[in-house]
Amino acid sequence: MPTQLLDGFSRQYRKKLVAVSLAVLLCLNFLFSHLLHLQVHTQGEEAAAEITQLSTEAFAAGASEIATRYGFSLLPVANAEEHQFAANDQTVTLYHESIWISHGFILIFFNLLSIGLVLFVHRWWFLYGKAAYSSNEQKPVALPAPPSERQYALFALVHWQCSTPKEVDLQLHFQLALVKGAGEFGTVAVKYLASGALAVTVKQVGATKGMDLTKQIHEIVYRVLLEFRGDLSRSKVKLGACFYQESKQQTQVYQSAKSALSIAQNQVWQHTHLVHLTELLAKRLNEDGEALLSYLKVGQFSLFFQPLFDFLAEDVIVSEALLRITHKEMGRISAKQVMQHLYTPEQFQFLDRAIVKQVLSVYEQERNFGKVSINLHISSWVDNQFIDWLEGQLIASHSGAAIGFELSIEEVYQHGERLLTAFDRLNRLGCDIYLDNVTQALTLGRSPLVELVKAIKLSYELVHGIEKSAYRKRTVKQIVAQARSLGIPVYAVGIETVAELSCIKGLGVKGAQGHYFSAPLQQLADIH
User: Fold this and answer.
1) What is the DSSP letter of 159?
2) Alpha-carbon distance 516 to 528, whole Å?
3) How much is the average pLDDT of 56-66?
4) Distance of alpha carbon 334 from the chain centroid
5) CA proximity to 317, closest of 236, 368, 372
6) pLDDT per position as a tens digit, 4-53
7) Kind of pairing, strands 151-160 and 198-206?
8) Pairwise CA distance, residues 430 & 452, whole Å
9) Which residue spans within 98-160 are E strands per DSSP?
10) Sign of the CA dihedral 70, 73, 77, 82?
11) In 138-192, which ranges are continuous DSSP H helix?
12) What kind and span of H or E run contains 42?
C-alpha cells in the first residue's frame, strides 16, 4: 500500500483508504467463498469414492450414512444445491446446503474481524502518528486450506516365473526401483518373502489412485526382471493387490491380496488383480478354513472334469477332476481358492478326502466314465495314515485302475524320497501317477520315482503362446526328448488356439487338454 495512504490518515487520503479497504475485503470474501466451495467439492469427491466402492447389498444403508457423514444428502432438501461427482467410472448425485447458509456465520465472523482490524490500525495510527514505514511487507493472514484427500494404503503380492541371480539382493534391488518409480503415490516398503513372492506396501495413497498404482508396480517389477531375463514376457509376472483403509486387520489384507494373486495367476491376459477391502469383503474373509469346509460337510459342492485328449487315439484318455464349492454369497469357488484359507494338514486332507469320495461315487454310478485324475495336496501324500485310508477306499471300490493322481513337479523335487512309498503302493493298485506343472527340463534322472510315473504334463505357462517363443519351443523339445528316453509320454495343459496345437504336435507332445478341445464338463449327478 502506498506510504501516503498511511501518512497520518489525513483527510484527503481517508476516502481512498476506505475504497481500497473495501476492495481488499471484497477480494478476501471472494477468495474465502471459493475455498469453502472447494472444501465442499473435495468432501463430495471423497464421499462419492466411498459410495461407488459399496457392494449392491450394502448400498441402500451405507450410501446414505456416507453422504451424511460428509455433510451431504442423497435426496434434495430445502435450500440445497445439486452436485455431481465422478468416481470409479460412476456418477454420484449429492445435495448440499448453499454455502451462504451452511457457512454464513463464518463469513460474517470473517468480515467483522476484518473491519475490526482496519479500525484498530486506523486508531493506532491516529493515536501515535505516522510511524516509520517498513520496507518489509506484512505477511498475509493464512487462510484455512481445503482438507486433503482421504488416505488409503495398498498391499501387493508379486510372483514371477523366472530365475534371478543368487548374488543379487532382490529386496534392496526392488526397494530402490519401487521407491523411485512409485514414490509419487505414497510411502513405499518392500519385503522379499521366503516363498519367492515380493510384498509391496504403499501408504498414504489417494482414494482414486489404487488401480494406477497397481499397474505401475507391475510394470516396475517387470522392467527389473527384464534386466535378468531378456526374453521375459509380461504374462510371467502376476500381481495381486488389496486397496484398503489402514484401520483394516492385516490378516484380512493379506488374505485379500493372496486371493487376488491367485485370480491373476489363473487369467490369461489379466496380469494384475486389485481387490478393494470393503466392509462386506472383510466380513467374508472372517470365515476361516473350517467355515469353508463346512460347505463340503453339507454336500454343497460339485465336480467338473477337464478331459485330456490323445492325438494318436483321437479320444479322451483321462479326465482331471476339479472341485467347485457352492458358496452362499460368492457362487461357485474352486478348490484352489478354498486352499487360500486352509492352514493345517488336517484341513487339506479333509478337502482331499471329499474329492476322492466324490470321484469314487461318480465312478460307482458310471463305470464307463473312463479314467479320472485327482490332485492331492502334498500334506496328504506324505501322511502314511492318509495313504492307508486312500488305499482302503480304492480297494473297496475296485477302481484303482480307473484313478490317477497328479502332483506338481516342484513337490516331487522337494519330497522325492518320502513320496516313493506312496507312489509304489498306488501303482500296485493300478493307479497312474502324473507329474504336473512341468516348466523346464527334468532333473530327476532315472530315479525310482520316474519309473512309477505314467505321464508328464507341461504347465499352462509354458504352453500358452508357445508358437511365439523360441525359448519355450526349445524347452518343450528338451523335455520331450528326456521323456522319450524314459518311455514316458508328454501332454500339454491349457491349449486354446490352433497355433498352439500345431506347435506342440510338431514338438512331439502326445496329447493335450484345454478349452480348445472342451471346457470342464459337469458331472451328471450334482450334489446340492
Assistant:
1) E
2) 30
3) 74
4) 17
5) 372
6) 434 444 455 566 667 777 777 788 777 777 777 787 778 878 877 887 77
7) antiparallel
8) 11
9) 151-160
10) positive
11) 170-182
12) helix 11-52
Q: What does the DSSP 8-state code read for residue 127? A: H
Rounded Cα distance, 402 and 143, in Å: 79
Residue type, 42: T
Amino acid making up residue 404: G
Q: How far apart are the C-alpha atoms of 230 and 392, rounded to whole Å?
A: 51
Per-residue confidence band for 130, with pLDDT thresholds at 50, 70 and 90: very low
| pTM for this prediction | 0.48
Task: Name the DSSP letter for residue 133.
Answer: P
The Cα–Cα gap between 523 and 528 comes to: 12
Cell numbers for 364, please give them. 460307482
Going 273 to 276 to 277 to 280, the CA torsion angle's sign is negative
Look up cell 518311455; give the residue: 487
> In this structure, what C-alpha cell is assigned to residue 17?
483508504
What is the CA 331 to chain-centroid distance, rounded? 19
In whole numbers, what is the pLDDT of the chain averaged over residues? 78
Average the pLDDT over 250-263 and give the result: 80
Lowest mean pLDDT among 179-188, 241-250, 280-289, 296-305: 280-289
What is the spatial distance between Cα 377 and Cα 349, in angstroms, rounded to a whole number? Answer: 7
Task: Report residue 72 as a C-alpha cell.
Answer: 451431504
| Closest listed residue to residue 440, CA positions, set 390, 392, 384, 483 | 483
Please give the full DSSP string across 272-335, using - where no structure is assigned: EEEEE--HHHHHHHT--HHHHHHHHHTT-EEEEEEEEEETTTTEEEEEEEEEEEEETTTEEEEH
